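User: Continuing from earlier, I have the next pair ready.

Assistant: Great, send them over.

User: Here they are, in order.

Assistant: Folding the first of the pair now:
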Amino acid sequence: MPQSATKRFWEVDFLRGLAVVMMIIYHLLFNLVFFGEYQYDLFSGFWFYFQQVTASLFIFLAGVALTLSYARTAPGITRNTYLRFFRRGLKVFFWGLVITAVTWFFLGEGFVVFGILHFIGLAIILAYPFLKYPVLSLPVAIFCLLTGNYLGNLRFGFSWLLWLGFFPEQFYTVDYFPLLPWFGVFLAGIFFGKRLYPGYRRAFCLPDFSGFPPVRVFAYLGRHSLVTYLLHQPLLLVLLAALGVIELFV
């Protein structure tokens, strides 16, 4: 049966909440290393793959969520539909610019130039044609993943294509999500979202666990993922500093 246009799919919110919790765990460790000089190897081995899985899950689900939002609008697609998605993308990108300004002020070297919010904001805008023609999303996703992984092994003498995936020499940033390869993960979310939730209904059977308290907590975080993302780092830093675990100002 078709779902009500106002009904949410608890499993999508739950998985997005799980990705948020994984992100908080990783950033907790990152803060201990960056500000507290604790010795954790976050750039290889388990924690590197943990971060990659976390980011991939979050971005993939952002693509799935976009297909659900689009399905609630269809079939009455108008020019205003694109403008709505365009404004949503600009809103997320704007918060990415706020992160840029804040990290530039507090960090200086390593500040965020094109992080995950910059990426998701731009991806929402660029993905609109694939919502109308989802058959194209998979081959373009594969192209983005292959090209992005190839570019990731190279360094370039210019910075104006940093956002695309051309990483400059002697450049350092604490958060970097270029279009290549990450737009491929986003498009994969669109491709599978269209098939798993055609016409805003599940194409598979799933027991309803939405009433279980742990599921409700994770789903709540998933429904408010942007706010959680914006607030979690300041709260983590204040908490760790108050406990004397790290020193923010030395």
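And the other member of the pair:
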Amino acid sequence: MAVLPKTMILNSSERRLVEQHVAVLSRFLDLEEPFEMREKMMSNDNAIGVMIAALLVKKGSRMDAAISEALSEDYLDALEDMPAWAVREAVRKWNRSESPQLDKKPHDFNWRPEPPTLRRLAQLERWGVEGRIVQLKRILNAVERVEYSDEHRLEMLTKLQGVMPGRQLSEAAE
């Protein structure tokens, strides 16, 4: 739980803005949310299917129908719970040779990413949004830090000295 000074606790209008932002970000994680691709609105599954088809026809040897179908199934299995925008961003970064290394191994961008690799890259994109949502919710749920006056602190130290006899007040303060 976040603990913030009173001056940093959100007021009602700030809370409303942050809650709205969390709601907008949450839509990015909703697999039922339509996705615009090539100037068309598609379901999440259809958009991922289009991306997979595009991956299969480029950078590689020709495939017969059976191999293509099997590889499509592998990609669909790997990406079934990923939002299409995260897959698209992972593919875009792959195509630009900007994908982060996984397991400290460099990528060979001359080939399409394997299904597990593409999944992990898409997860990194999704985690960025999930992490932002968690941060914003922590701010929304933050409690005010209690600040005590020097007089109150001294009073409590005196009481503590009564509970812990034989210790100096300065020791109890440490």
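Worth noting for the second one:
The two ends are 26 Å apart (CA to CA). Residues 3-141 form one domain.
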